Amino acid sequence: MTIQILMTLCLTFSPGLAAAADGLDGIDVYGTAQLGEGDLLRDYGPQLKRYVRLQKQKSKGAVRSSDVLKLELESAVRRKGPFAYVRMQRVPSVQGGGSVIVFDFVEKKDAAARMPFRPAPTGRLGDPAGLVAAWRQYSEMGAELSRKGLLATDRVECPAFYCTWGDATPDLKILQDRFVQEVPSNKQSLLRVFKEDRDPQRRADALNLLAYLRSGPEVSETAELGMTDPDDRVREAAMRMFSDMAVYRKDAPLPAEKIARVLDYPSVDDRTRALAVMLGLAGHPVYRKFALQSASTQVLKLLRMRNSSNHDMALTVLRMLSQKDLGGTDFQGWEEAIREARKAESQASDKKK
Q: Could you tell me if 218 and 245 are in contact, meaning their C-beta atoms sit under 8 angstroms apart?
């Protein structure tokens, strides 16, 4: 059999390889068994490859065209099954240099469990003591300094349960000192903004400010509510708080079981943030057992994703839980390593009794 015939067979029977010819390493399908990579490449292959090409271009016209094409593809795919949610997203491939298109699905029968989000608030609230505007100033100032390389990458000293930029400059310190002093006395008003304001950015800003409360249980309870916000920005703020608390504030209680549910949330971004929290739980004296015995099953599932966001973070979590270093595609080996780690942990717990 000639090399040309072998290449033709590979392109015919391996949709991932066929896609890679145009810079697309493959497709991740998450959340449904109704459709697979082959189905999506068969029906939408040319459009998906065009989408990747447009995404790699920098012009405003290409960006607009890719956005329109994304909406068209999501709409077309949604009609193929009983889906409550469909999102298409281009993510760097595990292979490096290429792209994976992730199709995230939530079937209608799974919506309540996988999308436990509160209705979008409709209120228009004021700004308690101007703190929300001050947080926006603080956030944007820190982001600009970071872009210019003027802030250290090390974790900052934090007087709260989570700090974004700390007090690295005099201007940032003035604002952070204000948060330390004024947030506790404006707690109720900030909670109302967080829960009721229709602007998701203001809700996220209020949640970040509430990390400056002095009670760990209170901050944890508030961030827990943030995990069920309908907007991604608020959920991101909540998971950043939990990620930091899991490592640096072991005195604060964490809703480990509810955090683990985010590992099966609808989007790549949600799942990656939950994996980041799992890194902290894997080394936590209270929550490591839960992460190993219960949450690791879902982490093993995310290891099989070909997008680097979910795969790479899942690999790191498994290494911490098992204390082993296997390859990223040794799925059977990782299953066995986690079984062994669970057994060893159970035996150690029995000896303590």
A: no
DSSP 117: P
Same domain, yes or no: 108 and 123: no
Length of the chain equals 353
User: How far apart are the C-alpha atoms of 228 and 119, rounded to whole Å?
Assistant: 9
Whether the CB-CB separation of 341 and 323 falls below 8 Å is answered with yes
Q: Count CB-CB contacts under 10 A for residue 329.
A: 14
Residue 20 is predicted with a pLDDT of 44
Residue 296 pLDDT grade (very low, low, confident, very high; cuts 50, 70, 90): very high
Q: Same domain for 99 and 121?
A: no
pLDDT, mean over the chain: 92
Q: Which element (helix H / strand E) includes 266?
A: none
Q: Reading across the β-sheet that carries 99-107, which strands appear in turn? A: 24-30, 99-107, 83-92
Pair 196, 206: CB distance under 8 Å: no
Quick one: pLDDT at residue 157? Answer: 85
CA distance 46 to 97: 20
Do residues 235 and 276 make contact, with C-beta atoms less than 8 angstroms apart?
no
Range of the domain at 121: 117-253
Q: How confident is the model at residue 348 (pLDDT cuts 50, 70, 90)?
A: confident
Residues 208, 214, 220, 224: is their CA dihedral positive or negative? negative
**Sole residue written with tokens 């979910």:** 310
Together in a domain, 160 and 262: no
At 33, the amino acid letter reads A
Phi-psi domain of 240 (left: phi exceeds 0; alpha: psi -120 through 50; beta: other):
alpha
